[in-house]
């Protein structure tokens, strides 16, 4: 199993299975001349939907065996016709994004695990996450399209143009995101 640029075959860390069970990320080069590689970087797009809460849970299941940090990103921007908003202030948009992100993390985990870090970023989600994919090992997004076979516009953009692998997570059929078992990557849906 390999992930994006930092985990490219032969050059960076890769996931290997220990003889005693479990997984461990190792550097591609070994010995005194080995240059330490950076840990995989997993970014999760959070918009407060059930699918983004499920994406946070999946990110935890993927990140724990790798010892990878998870960055939960909420994007915000000023709507079209921003002149009126500039007059009254735009802080409310950032605050709303912070609240959505905090609630999604609460819904996903109760209390965020120590390796999950939240980040609120100004900009439209598609371009912001596409740019972030240049340094990420994996992007995890919720599918938020209409109908059972249609991806949302952000998911579609990232699947088509991201510079790293993209994992698209569906929310549970009932609309409530289910807990993802944390017994290893083999347990992922």
> Can you tell me the number of structural domains?
1
- Architecture, according to CATH? 3-Layer(aba) Sandwich
Q: What structural category do the secondary elements indicate?
A: alpha/beta
Q: Note poorly predicted spans.
A: 5-29, 145-149, 183-189
What does this 3D model show about the protein?
- The chain is of the alpha/beta class.
- The chain has a single domain, classed as HUPs (Rossmann fold, 3-Layer(aba) Sandwich).
- Helices cover 31% and strands 19% of the residues.
- The protein has helices at 50-66, 83-88, 91-109, 125-132, 153-161, and strands at 14-17, 23-26, 42-45, 70-76, 116-122, 138-142, 166-169.
- Strands 5-4-3-6-7 form a five-stranded parallel beta sheet. It has a two-stranded antiparallel sheet with strand order 1-2.
- Strand 3, helix 1 (50-66) and strand 4 form a beta-alpha-beta unit.
- Helix 4 (125-132) packs parallel to helix 5 (153-161).
- The longest helix is centred in the middle third of the chain and has 19 residues, at 91-109.
- The radius of gyration is 18 Å and the shape is globular.
- It starts with 13 loop residues before the first strand and ends in a 20-residue tail after the last strand.
Secondary structure blueprint with pairings:
Elements: E1 14-17, E2 23-26, E3 42-45, H1 50-66, E4 70-76, H2 83-88, H3 91-109, E5 116-122, H4 125-132, E6 138-142, H5 153-161, E7 166-169
Parallel strand pairs: 3-4, 3-6, 4-5, 6-7
Antiparallel strand pairs: 1-2
